[in-house]
Write a structure and sequence with these properties.
The protein is an alpha+beta fold. The chain is built from 22 helices and 32 strands. The chain has 4 domains: about 45-160, PAS domain (Beta-Lactamase, 2-Layer Sandwich); about 170-330, 2-Layer Sandwich (Alpha-Beta Plaits); about 350-590, TIM Barrel (Alpha-Beta Barrel), CATH 3.20.20; about 610-730, Beta Barrel (Thrombin, subunit H). The strands form 7 sheets. The chain has an 8-stranded mixed barrel. Strands 2-1-6-5-4-3 form a 6-stranded antiparallel sheet. Strands 23-24-25-29-28-27 form a 6-stranded antiparallel barrel.
């Protein structure tokens, strides 16, 4: 019946009915009914209608649309559409940089364009609103544009979900930082664009030190909270200079475009290390970690993304292997260094068995009468083939290989045995790692070492760093209590660096504070506060009834400053380096050990003795010389005769490091020069230039081939008018 009725209606065959049967249709000439339908349509919120004049100003907008925007209709009409909405910069589907205003001025059709309500202020907290708009341009009979007629609807819920999905694909859900995918795309596009423009880009790779211990001792929720705080700190430091990303776990990456100044990069890295190393409040507890940083710079350390990432990774490994809590720049010799370390790891397991490890002892001297009151046991490894291996290298290895407890127990037993034969007034100090201290059996190991040797407990001093406080606070308190009941002394080492906190002094029963060498190194510099810090630490120790030992004093100017600030005990080269046991026993034969201070009058922090072959360039010629020492502001090298004072030279330190210098001293083949621009710290205890220059660029710029390092320079042209060399090259041997 329904079908038959419909057919009758449209055929007009029903008697007494109109052409549409009994249906009350609305025809085009029924203006009032048409308006009623449009009103119902708008009130239902299915979609809203809008219209603009030729200048883009609203001449009509549905009332419901104004309500959606929480504005009176009177505040919208006669106002420009582009003043109320804008293209959404976060739109994952629409990345056009053409503004809404630009699109409106084109007078073309608009199809399903998503726009965002413009916030009242930059920090407007109002709920964001997105509309999808479509519109047709209206023209009069002469073709003149009259405005737009369009419709719109609120797509905020759907669009917010789309934004979240897009963000989850590019951002880390825990920290809000860019994830590995986004950082990879950013780096790829950046390097591609920078190649043509010959621009630079630095990459920093960060890895958190001791993060696993936080997870293990405080739980994964605490680890997650710590990662969020790390992300916040690093982002604050970097600001708008670059982008920070979390690659996963405790690994972070920073992209710094247009930055190749290794001085500035080193300053940023140092600041990150210091800030990341400050304590993290997590609930009622506190966690302490550190960070190591590897730095590589394109195009010098790699042109492609994989190359530059590999270089920064290698630099990061080198930083971690050198003792952690530091930064390292990439250099070509790191590959050899990594291979050397791999072989050392294999050898370390056998070092204890083969008795390659030994303890040397550095005296702690009372400044009042220069009498030795104690010794610090320092571990030494003399490899049968490689010679002496630095503790900064093999101690982190031991931690990675889970050998640190075995190594620490050996050192504790040996130190107690050695000290037993010294006068009873002399103590021995042994360093204890955070891993050792966290072991539940550590107090028993201490008691066994004392019992086995027969050494009085009060003559044993255990040196701890603040990193021991990272573990379980209840377990720490119990360990401290047990050790104090045993009767050993406790010293807080490296105080004043990294993440020092006065709460440690309140919560742990220390007998001594050791002032870190870094304050002593700069205590004579007037633009530093180091001498004031030393005085404050000494005063704090005395107020708490503790002793203070100042470490690392090497010269008399430092000695005078720290003594003036109240230092009663000093440990440093001005008295003595670490000594072998047989040397100590010989000097203690009389029953007392007195050392008179002896050292340079002034401390020169940046002077380094080296033996390194470098090149020097003068006019059209390159000479091979041997550098004898190096500082930030100058160098001394040997290998050329007849160089007058005042001569300008260029030193080629390798890897594109060219330094402009002026000769200040010249004695036969020994030359002293002053640099035009000071060198900077390379993160590994050495020095490097702030900037590097590609020899290819130098060749293209016209530097004579004879003055360049060996290599192929296809774009360079040989000079036909090269001058004769003005200096005489001499052969220099190591001795």
């Amino acid at each position: 019946m329904a079908v038959k009725g419909f057919l009758k209606a449209i055929s007009g065959n029903s008697a007494g009915d109109s052409a549409f049967g009994s249906v009350d249709v609305i025809t085009s000439d029924n203006y009032a009914k048409r308006v009623e339908v449009l009103d119902d349509f708008e009130q239902a919120g299915i979609s809203w209608l809008w219209a603009t004049d030729a200048d883009g100003r609203f001449v009509y907008l549905s009332e419901k649309a104004a309500e959606n925007l929480d504005k009176p209709i009177s505040d919208i009409l006669a106002k420009p559409l582009a003043g109320l909405f804008e293209n959404d910069p976060d739109n994952p589907d629409e990345k056009s940089d053409r503004t809404l205003q630009f699109q409106l001025t084109k007078h073309s059709k608009i199809n399903d364009l998503v726009v965002r309500r413009i916030p009242k202020t930059q920090n407007d907290g109002d709920k964001p609103i997105w509309w999808m708009i479509s519109a047709h341009p209206k023209f009069d009979s002469s073709g003149e544009f009259l405005g737009y007629r369009g419709n719109a609807k609120d797509v905020s819920i759907e669009y917010q979900r789309k934004l979240e999905d897009s963000r989850n694909a590019e951002y880390d859900s825990l920290t809000g930082l860019a994830n590995r995918n986004r950082m990879g795309r950013q780096l790829t596009s950046m390097l591609s664009a920078f190649k043509a423009a010959n621009r630079s880009c630095a990459i920093m790779m960060l890895d958190l030190d001791r993060f696993k211990q936080v997870n293990d001792t405080m739980g994964h929720p605490a680890g997650d909270e710590l990662l969020r705080q790390v992300a916040s700190r690093v982002t604050t430091i970097i600001g708008d200079r670059g982008e920070v990303g979390r690659l996963g776990g405790d690994e972070f990456q920073i992209i710094l475009p247009d930055l190749d100044d290794r001085g500035k990069l080193g300053e940023i890295a140092e600041k990150i290390v210091k800030i990341v190393s400050q304590p993290y409040p997590i609930g009622e507890k506190s966690a302490v970690i550190g960070t190591s940083i590897g730095i590589a710079v394109a195009p010098y350390d790699g042109l492609e993304p994989d190359d530059i990432i590999s270089s920064s990774d290698l630099a990061l490994y080198a930083a971690k292997n050198s003792g952690r809590g530091q930064f390292r720049f990439y250099s070509a010799d790191l590959k050899d260094e990594e291979e050397e370390r791999r072989r050392l790891v294999e050898d370390l397991r056998d070092a204890l068995v083969n008795e390659q490890l030994a303890l040397h002892y550095q005296p702690v001297v009372r400044t009042g009468d220069h009498m030795v009151v104690g010794f610090e046991a320092l571990m030494r490894w003399v490899h049968p083939e490689r010679g002496a291996v630095s503790p900064a290298v093999f101690i982190p290895m031991a931690e990675e290989l889970n050998l640190i407890n075995q190594l620490g127990e050996w050192a504790l037993r040996r130190a107690c045995e050695d000290a037993l034969n010294w006068p009873k007034s002399i103590r021995v100090a042994v360093n204890v790692s955070a891993v050792q201290f966290a072991s539940s059996g550590f107090p028993e190991i201490v008691m066994n070492a004392l019992a086995h040797s027969g050494l009085e407990p009060e003559r044993l001093e255990l040196e701890l760093t603040e990193s021991v406080f990272m573990g379980d606070s209840d377990a720490n308190d119990k360990t401290f209590e047990t050790l104090k009941n045993v009767g050993v002394r406790l010293a807080l080492d490296d105080f004043g660096t990294g993440y020092s906190s006065l709460s440690y002094l309140r919560s742990a029963p220390f007998d001594k504070i050791k002032v870190d060498k870094s304050f002593v190194d700069s205590c004579t510099q007037k633009d530093k506060n180091s001498e004031k810090i030393i005085a404050a630490i000494v005063g704090l120790s005395e107020a708490l009834g503790m002793e203070t030992t100042v470490e690392g004093v090497e010269a008399f100017d430092q000695f005078n400053v720290v003594c003036e600030k109240g230092a009663k005990y000093i440990q440093g080269w001005i008295y003595s380096p670490a000594l072998k046991l047989e040397d100590i026993e010989e000097k203690l034969g009389s029953g007392a050990f007195k050392i008179e201070p002896d050292g340079p009058e002034l401390y020169r922090q940046d002077r380094r003795t080296v033996f390194r072959r470098i090149g020097i360039i003068h006019e059209d010629h390159r000479y091979e010389v041997v550098m004898r020492d190096l500082s930030k502001t100058g160098s001394r090298f040997e290998g050329v005769l007849g160089v007058p004072i005042g001569t300008g030279l260029v030193l080629d330190l390798g890897s594109g490091q060219l330094v402009i210098a002026t000769v200040k001293r010249s004695s036969e083949s020994m030359i002293g020069v002053e640099f035009e621009t000071a060198l900077v710290d390379d993160g590994a205890g050495g020095l490097c230039t702030r900037h590097r220059v590609s020899p290819y660029d130098l060749a293209v710029a016209g530097m004579p081939l004879a003055a360049l390092p060996e290599g192929e320079y296809p774009l360079a042209q040989k000079s036909e008018n090269a001058s004769k060399p003005q200096f005489t090259q001499v052969v220099v041997g190591k001795n």
